[in-house]
Specification:
alpha/beta; Fumarate Reductase Iron-sulfur Protein, Chain B, domain 2; FAD/NAD(P)-binding domain; 5-stranded parallel β-sheet; 16 strands; disordered C terminus; binds flavin-adenine dinucleotide
């Protein structure tokens, strides 16, 4: 029997991962963090002590069997590792790159109490990338049931719901407003963090399940949700339209030329070829750019501006580095790339250059007071500390809201903030219509959106009377729990009962 691993017997240091040199990478959109080599992956897998009761899996919003897939890597069975991950996670190559593992699986890893936790995200990416390179996918036998499902939005929530509904035998159509699918994975997160080829590969796997994507289709304008469940004949609908409607500052100068939202900047760069030469959709970038905010979106916007040729990029944030909502790794990479951080600073006006453009901002220094509702210390303006700050482009990355179109064109119930209201099963106020991801919670994370898509799929499966293909078969607890000797969880049970 193999000797049990302990904290004393495993390698103390994480496998070092390669990164593009900061000076080189600010001139290209290639990935910053390189993938593990097979040797690095083996080293890192050997650091997992295979806890009897792993706490990393409950730390993952979709419950990946982390201990199981790492053991397969250690045994050099990468296909086995891929099979384990994809039992619960559709997008390993995406999640391995962008999940905030430090707050989830790696944040719970017991090794982290003494040493650096096992690099679970990098191992997941290693398996996901290997699967793409080898052309692996897990397509189960699917028995068509004739039911039609409409999904609105092709981000991680819509994709996860589509996959589960397709596996349950439904005919699934995903409607996407943009000309290509992927949601924020495509239009928001830049190639140097998540290359589009990875998103393409994961979408191809969905197509192999039979999911159809209809792009350039803005639901609410071309047809409504009520029409989908009515004359268009969908048996159930999932809304995963995200929270892509940007907030602005509401200060003087907000609407000058040269003020744009981070979402617009990123969409023009990632989806409209603004970063490529020879296209007629350029993005004139300022010499001195100020980005307001300090979340992942702000980091992406700043690092894109750097790569598009801005001479100086400044981050303006009203709290301190400790409160910045971006992943620490992103802040670190931005610092390495020469982004100038102005912590405890807030803009109070954007200044006109006399021709309708931007010549700078008036800023004020802040200090931290008592904690607010978010638990973070509230920024308080320091009296008399205003000063002018020169810049010619202002990018606003202070958060987003629900896109209002669905609410404006349907009778669906919204919550106080304008997001779609659901019950705990993610059912909305309209029969047969479910919702999940950022359009329900507000801006969150990729894996939370995927978890919501899967949860909604499970509720839709129950609503349609289909058997949950993921559910492990258990005999009914008692004879009374079965109806006419049949398990009510069985496939097509509803039709058996009513026939
Ligand atoms: C720049 C940026 C960086 C981020 N970085 C990270 C990160 O590193 N890690 C992380 O975990 N999370 C990150 N996030 C958050 C994460 O991407 C989101 O939480 C997640 O994508 C939400 O998924 P979703 O499916 O709910 O919505 P989205 O990904 O927003 O997808 C919604 C889709 O619906 C489409 N749509 C909207 N309205 C309609 C309509 N009426 N008809 C048809 N289609 C419609 C949209 O075009 C879009 O494609 C980031 C977000 C941004 C903006």
């Amino acid at each position: 029997m193999a000797k049990r691993k302990t904290i004393r017997t495993i390698p103390r240091e994480r496998a070092p991962v390669g990164e593009q040199d900061p000076q080189a990478r600010i001139r290209n959109f290639g990935e910053v963090t390189l993938r593990f080599t097979p040797e690095q992956a083996q080293h890192e897998a050997s650091r997992c002590i295979e806890c009897a009761k792993p706490v990393c899996t409950p730390g993952c919003p979709v419950g990946v069997d982390i201990k199981g897939f790492i053991a397969k890597i250690a045994a050099n069975d990468l296909r086995g590792a891929y099979d384990i991950i994809t039992e619960t996670n559709l997008l390993p190559a995406v999640c391995g790159r962008v999940c905030p593992q430090e707050n989830q699986c790696e944040g719970s890893c017991v090794i982290g109490n003494t040493l650096a936790p096992v690099a679970i995200g990098r191992l997941e990416r290693f398996v996901g990338d290997t699967a793409i390179a080898e052309g692996w996918s897990n397509i189960p036998y699917i028995e068509p049931n004739g039911l039609r499902i409409g999904i609105i939005g092709s981000g991680p929530a819509g994709m996860a719901c589509a996959a589960d509904m397709a596996k349950a035998g439904c005919d699934v159509t995903v409607y996407e407003a943009f000309h290509v699918p992927g949601g924020v994975l495509r239009y928001g997160i830049p190639d140097f963090r998540l290359p589009n080829v990875v998103v393409d590969a994961e979408i191809a796997n969905l197509e192999k399940l039979g999911v159809r994507f209809e792009c350039n289709t803005l639901v609410g304008r071309l047809f409504t949700i009520e029409q989908m469940v009515g004359e268009l004949g969908f048996d159930a609908v999932f809304i995963g339209t995200g929270a892509g409607y940007p907030s602005f500052l509401g200060i003087p100068g907000d609407s000058l030329n040269g003020v744009l939202s981070a979402n617009e900047l990123l969409t023009r760069c990632n989806m409209m070829q603004a970063k490529d030469r020879g296209f007629d959709t350029p993005l004139p970038i300022g010499a001195r750019v100020a980005v307001i905010g300090s979340g992942n979106t702000a980091m992406d916007a700043m690092r894109v501006c750097r790569r598009l040729g801005a001479e100086e990029v400044h981050c303006i944030y009203r709290r301190s580095r400790a409160e910045a909502p971006a992943r620490l790794e992103e802040v670190h990479h931005a610092e390495q790339e020469g982004i100038d951080f102005h912590w405890l600073t807030a803009p109070v006006a954007i200044l006109d250059d006399g021709k309708g453009g931007v010549r700078g901002m008036r800023c004020i220094r802040m200090e931290l007071g008592e904690p607010d509702a978010s638990g973070r210390r509230r920024p308080v303006a320091v009296k008399g500390s205003e000063y002018e700050f020169a810049c010619d482009l202002v990018v606003v990355a202070i958060g987003t809201n629900a896109n209002p179109i669905i609410g404006q064109t349907s009778k669906i119930k919204l919550d106080k903030r304008g997001y779609i209201a659901t019950d705990e099963t993610l059912a909305t106020s309209l029969a047969g219509v479910y919702a999940g991801g950022d359009i329900v919670t507000g801006a969150a994370t990729v894996i939370q959106a995927m978890g919501a898509g899967r949860k909604a799929a499970s509720s839709m499966i129950a609503y349609l009377g289909l058997r949950d293909t993921d559910a492990v078969y258990r005999a009914p607890a008692s004879a009374e729990a079965a109806l006419f000797g049949l398990d009510p969880g069985e496939h097509n049970f509803v039709r058996v009962r009513t026939a």
